[in-house]
Amino acid sequence: MKDLRSKINDIAKRRGIFWNSYEIYGGVAGFYDYGPVGANLKKNLLDLWLEEFVYRDGLMLIDSPVIGPEIVYRASGHVDKFADFMVRCKSCGHAFRVDELIGEFVEIPDALSPEEMNRVIREKNIRCPDCGGELTDVEEFHLMFSTRIGLDKVGFLRPETAQGIFVNFPLLYRINREKLPMGVAQIGRAYRNEISPRQGVLRQREFNMAEIELFVDPEERFDDSRIEDVELPLLKMDGEFIRLSAREAFEKGIVNAYMAYYMARIMRFLEKIGIDTSRVRFRQHHREELAHYSKDTWDCEIELSRGWVEVIGIAYRGAYDLEHHMQYSGADMRAFRKFKEEKIVKRRKIVPRMEILGPMYKGKAKSVAEVLEGMEAPEEKVELKVEMNGSTYTIPEDAYDIVEEERKVSGERFIPHVVEPSFGIDRLIYAILEHTYYEREDSGYKVLRIPPRIAAVKAGVFPLMNRDGMDTRAREILDILRKNGINAYYDDSGSIGRRYARADEIGVPFCITVDYQTLKDGTVTVRERDSTEQKRVPVEKLPDTLRNLIEGRISFGELDAHVR
RNA sequence: GCGGGUGUAGUCUAGUGGUAGGACGGGGGCUUCCCAAGCCUCUAGCCCGGGUUCGAACCCCGGCACCCGCACCA
Question: Residue closest to B33, CA→C1'?
Answer without folding.
Answer: A495
